[in-house]
Amino acid sequence: MAALLGSTFPGEVGLRLLLSPFGSNIVTRTACCTVGIGLPVFSTFKAIEEKNRVEQERWLLYWAAYGSFSLVEVFSDKILYWFPFYYHMKFAFLVWLQLPSGNGSKHLYVRHLRPFLLKHQARIDQLLRFTSTETMKIIMAHQGEIQFVKAVLERCATTTKLIVKEFTHPLQSQGRNTTESSDGPTSPTRLQIREADPDADN
User: Fold this and answer.
1) Which residues, including other chains, have CB under 8 Å from residue 94's CB and lie 6 or more apart?
2) What letter would DSSP give residue 83?
3) Which of 38, 53, 185, 192 is at a distance of 20 to 30 A from 32, taking alpha carbons?
4) Does 78 share its domain with 107?
5) Which residues form the signal peptide (predicted)?
6) Is the pLDDT assigned to residue 4 strictly greater than 70?
7) Is residue 40 a contact partner of residue 63, using CB atoms and an 8 Å limit?
């Protein structure tokens, strides 16, 4: 009995924190991020690795529904944020999208997303082609600046790597410097000894 209570206690506390009307937005937003992104990413990974076509289609539909919801949320989040229980409702919506019994993502795709995209597919394709063309024009027009920024970033990355290496392996750097100094031009060579003392070989 004690073991059973010990195993259910953390889950019960977490559920109460999540569903509490006075719960912090940090708790509910973390739960939304975990349920909405973290778990689906891992489930998608498993579906791909196991080559499960049914699961792949299921999670593909989920990402289409979730992406559409995220686009809407970008423009409405600043307003909806002030509504009470907004993140609680978002959490419930994300769970509904994923549950196999509710099949929410497929319902949302078939009923709303697919008809909208079919209706506006030509315009969206035209907009994407225009955006791609204009982006390539900007890149070609500013090729010099882009190469300069790339070179600066590469140099900064190299410098940062050297600094980090000096901090993480100071003994190796000191050992290398000591070796270089002992083998360098400061150590006398046989020719220098011979010139200083001609009878040294005798």
Assistant:
1) 32, 35, 36, 66
2) S
3) 53
4) yes
5) none
6) no
7) yes
